[in-house]
Specification:
By secondary structure, the chain is α+β, with helices and mostly antiparallel strands. The protein has helices at about 5-30, 55-75, 85-105, 120-140, 175-195, 200-220, 260-265, 305-315; strands at about 35-45, 45-55, 115, 170-175, 220-225, 230-235, 240-245, 250-255, 270, 275-280, 285-290, 295-300. Keywords: Membrane, Transmembrane, Transmembrane helix.
Length: about 325
């Protein structure tokens, strides 16, 4: 599993510490120029005018809590490839908070405070600069001890199999929350059809769009055999995902907890990222298949170690591992 190293966590926490210190220093330096009640919410087309207000002490407490919460979350969940995101978040949030203080300086009436829309552009510029700094630091943050490095899959487990023996492996994996959600969505279909044709029919359409693919992915069968890896719904042959054996360069096992699922795949279900795809239905062990193009495919399934061992053995026979 690609766990964050202490250095990586420190790199992720640093921009939030920097932003928090800067914000507190400005808050103290501008204390005499800030009103007791700050304009904190704005609306309007060109230059947004205040329509929401917060006491200075309450706003300071909420701002500090926001930075601490975001910083803690990124520090705990950060992955090496997402370090730039931690820095961008800190830069954008810190810039908006500082700009909000600036807009309230010397305000006699908070209702007259104006927050120009250029603040969003300045916040975006700060996020971009911070993201570049975070991206540059990525090369200084070593991958975790359990991270998969190039060639690591080729050193994965093997299954003792004779030259003339043929073997296959198959298991099912399921997600109860996705099953319940899909059934509830499908239950909305007849309700939508029985109600007025419009707009209640949208309820039926939404139920079908969510329920049918959701139910198909809620319980799947993973098979490893001489053709490669196949993942398909347990109750149907389609849709399916297949990684042909001649595209497999290695297989390994990775333990995925909730933090790893969110950081590496962005959530549950069928996920597509820049360098990997995955069907993540539950926390626990996952079969990770490295393809010849350098991309990875992962699926969470029980007994993934046996699947990886068999796949490595079969791929080795074909001279891929």
């Amino acid at each position: 599993m690609n766990r964050a190293t202490p250095r990586l966590r420190a790199f992720a926490a640093f921009p939030f510490v920097l932003t928090l210190v800067t914000y507190l220093v400005l808050l103290a330096a501008w204390g005499d120029r800030l009103p007791d009640t700050l304009a904190t919410h704005f609306s309007g087309a060109d230059s947004a005018r205040a329509d929401g207000f917060t006491g200075r002490t309450a706003f300071a407490a909420v701002s500090v809590a926001l930075l601490l919460g975001l910083g803690t979350g990124w520090t705990v969940l950060v992955r090496r490839t997402a370090l730039w995101g931690a820095w961008a978040t800190a830069g954008f949030t810190g810039a908006l908070l500082v700009l909000l203080l600036r807009d309230n300086l010397d305000a006699a009436d908070p209702a007259q405070v104006v927050s120009p829309l250029t603040n969003l552009l300045l916040g975006g510029a700060a996020a971009a600069l911070f993201a570049l700094a975070g991206g540059a630091l990525t090369r200084l943050a070593p991958a975790g001890a359990g991270a998969d490095a190039p060639g690591a899959a080729a050193e994965g487990p093997r299954l003792a199999l004779g030259a003339s023996e043929v073997a296959g492996w198959s298991r099912t994996t399921a997600s109860r929350p996705l099953t319940v959600l899909s059934l509830l969505a499908l239950a909305a279909v007849p309700a939508g059809l029985l109600l007025a044709p419009w707009p209640a029919a949208l309820l039926a359409l939404l139920g079908l769009v969510i329920g049918v693919p959701g139910l198909a992915l809620a319980r799947v069968r993973v098979t490893v055999d001489r053709w490669g890896v196949t993942v398909r719904p347990s109750l149907a042959g389609r849709p399916r995902v297949r990684v042909p054996l001649d595209e497999v360069t290695g297989a390994s096992v990775r333990e995925l907890d909730t933090a790893a699922v969110l950081a590496d795949y962005g959530g549950w279900g069928y996920r597509v990222r820049a360098d990997r795809t995955g069907l993540v239905l539950r926390a626990g062990e996952a079969l990770v298949v490295r393809r010849s193009g350098g991309r990875e495919f992962a699926v969470t399934v029980p007994d993934a170690r046996t699947a990886a061992a068999l796949l490595n053995t079969l791929a080795e026979r074909r001279g891929k591992v």
